[in-house]
Amino acid sequence: MATTTLRTTAGYRTGLYDWLTTTDHKKIGILYLANSILMFLIGGLFALVVRVELAQPGLQFLTDAQYNQAFTIHASLMLFLFVIPVLAGFGNYITPLMIGAPDMAFPRINAFSFWLLPLAAIVMLSGFATGGGAAAAGWTEYSPLAQAKYEGIGTDLWIVALLLIGTSSILGSINFIVTIFKMRAPGMTLLRMPVMVWTMLVTSILVLMATPVLTSALIMLFIDRNLGGHFFDPANGGNAILWQNTFWFYSHPAVYIMVLPAMGIISEVLPVFSRKPLFGYKAFVFATAAIGALGFSVWAHHMFTTGAVYLPFFSFMTFLIAIPTGVKFFNWIATMFRGQLTFSTPLLYAIGFLTMFLIGGINGAFSAAVPVDFALHDTYWVVAHIHYVLFGGSVFAVFAGLFYWWPKMFGRKLNETLGKIQFVFMFIGFNLTFFPMHILGLSGMPRRIADYDPNAGWNDLNLLATIGGFTIAFSILPFLWNVFITFRSGEPAGDDPWEGNTLEWATSSPPPPYNFDHLPEIRSERPVFDARHGASHA
Amino acid sequence: MSIPRPRLPQPARSVVALVALALLLAGCAALEPPAAVTAQGQDTRDLYDFVFIIAVVIFFLVEGLIVFAALRYRRKPTDTELPPQIHGNSVLEVLWTVIPTLIVVIMFVFSWQTLNKVDAVSPSPALTVRAVAAQFQWQFDYLAPDGQTVQFTQQAPELDLPVGVDVHVILRSKDVIHAFYVPKFLFKRDVVPGRENNFDFTIDPNDVNQSFRGQCAEFCGTFHSTMLFTVKALSPADFKTWLDQQIATAASTPAPSPAASGGTGGTGGGGGAATGPTLDLTAHNIAYDQATLSAPAGQPFVIKFTNNDPGVTHNVAITDSTGQQVFKGEIFSGPDSRSYPIPALPAGTYTFACSVHPQMTGTLTVH
């Protein structure tokens, strides 16, 4: 690790050119966030397309083929180009600040990791310009359906896009791991690292171990499709289930990649707005590590109905993973207990996360009970489950993080009133959309169907879900307006608007290049709190 | 620029709380699977109910704690001093690790026991049926007691089964992965090319003469949503009669020669030369291109039927207003066409439909 003299941005790098060539982790973090939110908006439009078509039985607006592309691209954008990168964006911005480092360990690799993502988005979406349309076999691209016999060139573009994203993830994870192990400020021992940094570390290890498996599988699928391979093609001696095993060996840990940093954000927000330390810090760290470890032994719970899985093992491991998650819940709640809660927007979103992610955990336990999963698998119940985890969980945490760190990133606070209006509409819209899907799933509505029997009793709940979808879309408008007016005339934030605990609040808002003039003493996981209140409270 | 938030008056807050609670309870009450119609489904339902009770208790306990903390520990203007800085409590933390561990172990054991019942396969089932799935249709082979010989193939997506006896189903895919899913069985199993999945179930005798909706549950391509089927529960005697009749019909009807253009069933679908006026009808994307056809009464006519769905089978079958089938055209795979000779029909309104995809229908007016 070479240290260079502190040097501000070179004079010739200004404006757009600066943003296109920057290696500053803060600017790269903001680029990650901006690109991810753009993908969230595009992915959200695809979700609305799906909801409009499902609002009533019959095909009103789309063909079956177009519908299948819409839900495939919705999920692919949201998972691979929104949730994973948006959390990597927070990690990028905040990890070096939280551990008192001047930048990430490999700044240029960091920039490269980011720039692969817009490229991947262009490649994936360019499928719509091809004759056969974009990828349409679902974000899981199960073989044999994903073979060239059934799906067009859009699927090849999807594979290439995922290879690019995977490369970005692997490079990013190495960067995080090296940064966290090698660049911590003096005094910042591992067990004084903020929980957000711990979640980034565990997430990066998951990414590093899981993504190469997906990358291999994608290359094999590409060979199957284009070079006469038969890895996953049972008609020619291949194995259809092999794709599922390799795909989920990545994609189940990926759920934790999409959730652990969100838990990290919540674990930063709750203590600050409760004016208390995180309850059970060490238990929290161990629970994070346990989720990471157990996360590698549950992938086949996505495959219970294939008949090709040793069911009791994967059922048991899936039940087990509820335990560290439960520990985290109790720690979060205990953090609020006897605290002094300030209901700023970040706390509102954090409590939104707690209430909704809880449902995502509980409805997941149903599917751990294998026979119940036989009933619920591939129905709208599962659609409800994933959205309570990734929207009720991760997306609420993303907004908590945006409102929490926006003042640090830009020196201005987002408007609180608009933030609360957004929260109310998003919370109501989210539940209107996704709660009815539990009932639809129980009554037998399979996922990924373009049309349904008008006599199946699904009409009203589908209409309700569509109304909810538009409510969520509406809730984004105050956010966009909020961003606009905050850039124009937002309230100046000062260095430490929330009375924060962690090192990012010890520097200016926004921080200078290379982050710190000087650091406070680090004697606990709350160095800025210690500096404010003295060691007597620590 | 934060605006002081007007607090709702006390009665209004109570109303909000009551409405929220009512919605929660209504939501919980609605989370009920359909009544199971198989013995195995009933076992699954018992497990569901057990998990559901635990889930509801945990939900209300934890949500209650969250809401309580959020309401009780708001920061007051008088809160200038820091609250007690509690870093943890070993006893509590051990408790809330051990108790959930016990709960999930109990849930696992119960679900494992249920799994062994639901997954059990009888060595001597009363009936073995092979469900063959392909894009985008189901057919059902009724196998002889040896479990190998096909006695009769049901090409329509209708699975007639006896109640009260053990039925063994073997799943086979001709192309991609599908899934056999009957919501009221509380069960599904993937139909995986290259492997033969199988399972058993026993339909409850109380559900005799009921029909249950079935559907492909694993996304299988463009027209996935059209892969519907129906399970019909018959008494064992009725089932035997039905099956014998189907086997007899299948034996007496010669397989249609590839060049022949004729119906394989119904009245007068003999395969003679096509005569009379010709109506054109095309199937594409699992749909007919016309919803209405009209034909002259009292004289034979021809439906020239073109199937434009590659690899997907269709036909045209005509039923009269009483539901009696008056013509059934040969089922064939696209892209191809057939000229169906339709016998003279009395004036009236008829329904035409695809035997393989009953959702493909239209109205035939004869006048």
Descriptive account of the structure:
The complex is a heterodimer of chains A (538) and B (367). With 538 residues, chain A is an all-alpha fold. Helices cover 65% and strands 1% of the residues of chain A. Chain A contains 17 helices and two strands. Chain A has helices spanning 15-21, 25-54, 64-98, 107-125, 153-182, 195-226, 240-257, 260-274, 281-294, 311-320, 322-336, 345-368, 370-376, 380-410, 416-442, 459-489, 527-533, and strands at 412-413, 491-492. Chain A has a two-stranded antiparallel ribbon. The relative contact order of chain A is 0.10. The model of chain A is unreliable at 1-5 (pLDDT under 50). Chain B folds into three domains: 26-70 and 89-120, Helix Hairpins, CATH 1.10.287; 127-252, Cupredoxins -  blue copper proteins (Immunoglobulin-like), CATH 2.60.40.420; 263-366, Sandwich (Immunoglobulin-like). Chain B has helices spanning 10-30, 39-72, 90-118, 236-252, and strands at 127-134, 137-143, 150-154, 158-162, 166-173, 178-182, 187-191, 197-202, 211-216, 228-234, 263-266, 278-283, 292-295, 301-307, 313-314, 317-319, 325-329, 332-333, 336-342, 348-353, 361-366. In chain B, the strands form five sheets. In chain B, strands 11-17-16-20-21-13 form a six-stranded mixed β-sheet, with no helix packed on it. In chain B, a hairpin with a 4-residue loop joins strand 6 and strand 7. At the A-B interface, helix 3, helix 9, helix 10, helix 11 and helix 12 of A face helix 2, helix 3, strand 7 and strand 9 of B.
Name given to the CATH architecture of chain A: Up-down Bundle
User: Could you give me the name of the CATH homologous superfamily of chain A?
Assistant: Cytochrome c oxidase-like, subunit I domain
Total number of distinct structural domains of chain A: 1
Give the CATH level 1 class of chain A: Mainly Alpha
CATH topology (level 3) name of chain A: Cytochrome C Oxidase, Chain A
CATH architecture of the largest domain in chain B, by name, is Sandwich
H-E string of chain B = HHHEEEEEEEEEEHEEEEEEEEEEE
Radius of gyration of chain A: 23 Å
The secondary-structure element order of chain A is HHHHHHHHHHHHHHEHHEH
Oligomer: heterodimer
List the strand order in the largest sheet of chain B: 11-17-16-20-21-13
Q: What overall form of chain B do the CA principal axes indicate?
A: elongated
